[in-house]
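Sat 14:20. Reprocessing the chain from the morning session after the first attempt stalled halfway. Input below, unchanged.
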Amino acid sequence: MKKQTPVKNKKRKVAVFDIDGTIFRSSLLIEIVEALIDGGCFKPSVREKYIHQHERWLDRKGDYDSYIMAMVRVFEKNIVGVHKSEFDAIAKIVIKRQHDRLYIFTSNLIKEFKAKGYFLLAISQSPKAILGGFCKKLGFDKVYGRLYEVGTDGKFTGRIIDEPVIAVKSNILKRAVERRNLTLKGSVGVGDTEGDISVLEMVENPICFNPNAKLYKHAKKKKWEIVVERKDVIYEL
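Finished this time. Tokens:
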């Protein structure tokens, strides 16, 4: 009898999404920082470290990047010494409260690509400790976020594991493709800021959703698809 050659597993197409501002209509980092303050894990006084940038952004005198970076600094400084169990309990509350606050366009894309058998990959700069639970409800196959180290005492040390890798999103996509038998043929990427450009450059079908000015200008040069969702209307530019 002729020996049969084993059939190799067929590679899956990948659809990669940013989360904050792309699927979620807010930022998981912002929501968890506010909840950690309300829950007593962070002192209320830490709001003073970002409230000015928040107000400048609301008044259109400052930019969102300055606001979000102020939030990052507050989180990374104050998470040190917080017990992981306390964080997880508050993260569950945030996820329960926020899990339906999604954009229609990207939510439908997730359902569409899930039905087509795509490997759904989420890459975000938000903490993995809340990102994982949020994305699980959406049906993602793999989630990458900032992974903050937990010491032997169960408390956060403030150290970010593999920070150089997560800092550049294309590094994560390359790693996922290599390790998970994926293909970039027919691949899709969705993002909203210039931090997503490295991923959008890699995929065959880049989609810029509610892009900021830097991504919008880049997308126009590249002739990428640009979609804006405002209130209950979805526009293609």
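The chain has a mean pLDDT of 93.
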